[in-house]
Structures are given as structure tokens and as C-alpha cells.
Amino acid sequence: MRDAYHEELDSIGDGLVDMARLVGSAIGRATTAILDSDLKLAESVIEGDKKVDELQHDLEARAIALLARQQPVATDLRIVVTSLRMSADLERSGDLAQHVAKLARLRFPERAIPYDLHATILEMGQLAQRLMAKAAEVIVTKDVDLAMQLEQDDDEMDLLHRTLFQHLLDDRWKHGIETAVDVTLLGRYYERYADHAVAVAKRVVFLVTGEHADDLQGEIQPEIQPVAGPEGA
Fold first, then answer.
1. CA 43-48-52 angle, 5° bins
2. Interhelix angle 118-141/74-107, nearest 10 degrees
3. Structural contact between residues 23 and 52, judged by C-beta atoms closer than 8 angstroms
4. What integer pLDDT is reported at residue 179 of this predicted model?
5. Which of 23, 182, 8 is nearest to 79 (CA)?
6. Omega of the bond leading into 222 within 30 degrees of 0 (cis)
7. What are phi and psi of 32, to 5 degrees?
8. Cα 210 from Cα 171, distance rounded (Å)
9. What is the DSSP string of 8-29?
10. Is 62 exposed, middle or buried (0-12, 13-18, 19+ CB in 10 A)?
11. Buried (b) or exposed (e) across 107-129, using 16+ Cβ within 10 A?
12. Residue 175: which region, alpha, beta or left (left: phi > 0; alpha: psi -120 to 50)?
């Protein structure tokens, strides 16, 4: 009976990894769709979000059933409750990837992003995908040091987000209000996506240690190389 119980706990973790990998792929494909004005790819991201939602609903149902049947305590209870919270972060990440794809669909056949911002958006998309891949690895390995690094990695996303606003506030901006709104929304989607990846990693820290990541930050941060900012920053 206990073997079946722990197998069910493990399967919840496997479901979280599956969700992380799906939403990681989704943000990569959504980025390609918006940069290339690829309607077919955008539609596949939008449709694919249903699978993420299904995985979350299944995980929630299994976690709640486990709580009802087994009434776990201590570490096992922490695993179940934390897993429910992580699934919500991952589901929201999938929604944000879908938002990027929907923006690509809305502007098709035009390109939503001006060419002079392509490099920045591409970098944001690639970074978002890397952050989620690292979050998936953290779920699998329960590596606290790696989990703590995600918040440092997220600094790079914040820098890219600020770069977008610098373009928008530049007197030489010539792409109009509609494009400015699109770029503003897009930057927010990527920034929030990265935040959810960081939140997943922080929840793993709590799962493993029983302590919140922010409380441990001072102990681990000196071992992490800071992300270099632009010259003059």
C-alpha cells in the first residue's frame, strides 16, 4: 500500500516535469511564430495549451485524491501542497506562451514586431525557454543550488525588458502606437513567464528544505556569479 502511495507521489512529480517541458517548448515556438509571422505555428501553440490545462487538471485531481485517501503529514504533505502550487505556475506559463502566439495570430499577415526589435525579442524567447528547462531540471534533481540560480538568471530577463522600454521611449520611435502597445504587452508576457519559472524553482527549494528560498538567499548567493549588465549600467 505504501509503495503504491509513493509511486503516486512520484507520478505527480513526473506530471510537473511534463508540464514544464510542454510550456518550455510552447514559448520557443510562440517566439518563432511572432517573429516569422507564422500563423500555422501560432495556431499549434494556442491549441497545444489545452494539453497543459489537461495535465494540470489531472495532477490536481490526483493530488486531492491523495490528500483525501492518505492524509499525508510532514514532508509528504509538503510535496503534495507544493506540487499543486507549482502546477498553477506552470499552467500560467502556458497561458503566457499562448498570449504570445495569439498576438502573432492577431497581426497576421503583418509582423507584430519591428525588425529593429527582433534580436531583443528572440533573446527574450530563448532565455525564457532556458529558464523553464532549468526549472524542469530542478524538479527532477531537487538541486537547491541550481534552483537558487534561477533568480540570478532572471536578472537578464529584467535587463531585456528594460531594453524594450528604452526603445519605446526613444524619440526616434517610428512604429506607431499600436506596435508600441504590442511590444509593451509582449515584454510583459516574457517577464512574467520568467517569474513563474523562478517561482517553480523557489517552490522546489521549499519542498526540499522546508524553508523559503528568500530566507536562504544570503547563504547561497555569494557562490553564484552575478549576471553582467550592459556597459555603463
1. 150
2. 160
3. yes
4. 92
5. 8
6. no
7. -60, -40
8. 50
9. HHHHHHHHHHHHHHHHHHHHHH
10. middle
11. bbeeebbbeebeebbebbbebbb
12. alpha
| Contact indicator for 188, 160 with CB cutoff of 8 Å | no
Residue whose C-alpha cell is 509538503: 78
* Nearest C-alpha neighbor of 197 from the set 114, 133, 104, 108: 133
SS3 readout for 70-138? HCCCHHHHHHHHHHHHHHHHHHHHHHHHHHHHHHHHHHCCCCCCCHHHHHHHHHHHHHHHHHHHHHHHH
- What single DSSP character describes residue 232? T
Residues in contact with 208: Cβ distance below 8 Å, sequence separation at least 6, in sequence order: 142, 144
Determine the residue type at 60.
Answer: E
What is the tens place of the pLDDT at every residue in 122-168? Answer: 999 999 999 999 999 999 999 999 999 998 889 999 999 999 989 88
Kindly state the helix (H) or strand (E) to which residue 196 belongs, with its residue range.
Answer: helix 176-209
Nine cell digits for residue 118: 527582433
Say what the pTM is: 0.88
C-beta neighbour count of 71 within 10 angstroms: 9
Q: Tens digit of pLDDT for each residue in 159-200?
A: 999 999 898 888 888 889 999 999 999 999 999 999 999 999
Classify residue 226 as exposed, middle or buried by CB count within 10 Å of its CB (0-12, 13-18, 19+).
exposed
Q: Which residues of 38-48 are buried (b: 16+ CB within 10 A; e: fewer)?
A: beebbbebbeb
